[in-house]
Write a structure and sequence with these properties.
This protein has 297 residues and is an alpha+beta fold. The chain has 7 helices and 18 strands. The protein has one domain: Clavaminate synthase-like (Double-stranded beta-helix, 4-Layer Sandwich), CATH 3.60.130.10. It is 22% helix and 26% strand.
Length: 297
């Protein structure tokens, strides 16, 4: 069912520099669609605020019918904040390094296909200030499949039993490039971790949203070395259990890509995961941008 925000809010949308822009909720728990705006054109402060607020409220926005060059894409996402590059230089678009590549044809040093984002996670949590928003723009799409799935982790946290919430609320994760007990088989990341061994970064397992004040689960299972006080193996078991309990189907928006879609989500209230259900002979290429965040609390 599609519910207009104007109707649910009970008030007409303010007049803005984008008079045809419409923001429509996609479900009760997550997602809104934005139409009637061309983000290559200047956007005034009121429209920008409307988009930002809709993103925080709905956790993910799909902005339809865009047609960007790399520079225009970077400018459009910059409406939501300052961008930061992908941590892996290898993943950056050479002519615009603020764009990272999600490329179904990427292979690691052992010649294996790189399955970027195959598990529910939040981005770059091994950094002291991970990105608050992640954005994707479709460049090449398979004929079918290859959705990007976004899950509401604040509803996910809220749904957990009270004693479990209490148990995990003070927990801290120790984050690295790739955790020793994680399921990831990416040989490049394993080598990077072994060679560079950057200092681990500690984050809360349950974080509080700085704008909304809501609590949400917060981790990337491949990047967690351990939860403080637990072994790497036991930590992975707990993370898997939390993911299974919290991410109910009604909290998930599965974005079936159409050409011209720009999809952005709030990592402070969301996990995401790619679907690998498409023909691997077909090319799937997305441009990813990251908006700087602050220290998770
Ligand atoms: C990711 O950012 O983890 C990948 C998402 C996708 O490929 O849909």
């Amino acid at each position: 069912m599609q519910v207009s925000m104007e109707k649910t809010a009970g008030a007409p949308q303010a007049k803005t520099g984008a008079p045809h822009m419409k923001i429509t909720k996609l479900s009760e728990h997550i997602g809104a669609e934005v139409t009637g705006i061309d983000l290559r054109q200047p956007v005034d402060a009121a429209t920008r605020k409307q988009l930002y607020d809709a993103l925080v409220e709905n956790i993910t926005l799909v902005v339809r019918n865009q047609d960007f060059t790399p520079e225009q894409y970077v400018a459009a996402v910059s409406l939501f904040g300052e961008l930061m590059p992908d941590e892996s230089e290898k993943n950056r678009l050479p002519e615009q390094p603020l764009i990272g590549l999600i490329n179904s044809r990427a292979i690691d040093r052992e010649g294996k296909r790189v399955m970027t984002g195959e598990r529910w996670h939040s981005d770059h949590v091994n950094q002291p200030q991970p990105p608050k928003f992640t954005c994707l723009y479709a460049v090449k799409l398979p004929d079918k499949g290859g959705a990007t799935n976004i899950a509401n982790t604040r509803a996910g946290f809220a749904t957990l039993p009270a004693d479990l919430k209490k148990r995990i609320e003070g927990m801290k994760t120790v984050n690295v490039i790739i955790g020793s007990a994680s399921k990831s088989v990416n040989a490049d990341r394993r080598a990077w971790q072994a060679e560079a061994a950057p200092p681990p970064v500690i984050h809360p397992l349950v974080r509080t949203h700085p704008d909304a004040g809501t609590k949400a689960l917060y981790f990337h299972p491949n990047k967690v070395e351990n939860i403080v006080g637990m072994s790497p193996e036991d930590s992975q078991v707990l993370l898997e259990d939390l993911t299974e309990r919290a991410l109910k189907p009604e909290y998930v928006y599965s974005h079936q890509w159409r050409p011209g879609d720009m999809l952005i989500w709030d990592n402070r209230s969301a996990f995401h995961r790619a679907s690998f259900d498409y023909d691997p002979a077909q090319h799937r290429l997305l441009y990813r941008t990251l908006v700087k965040g602050d220290t998770p609390r």
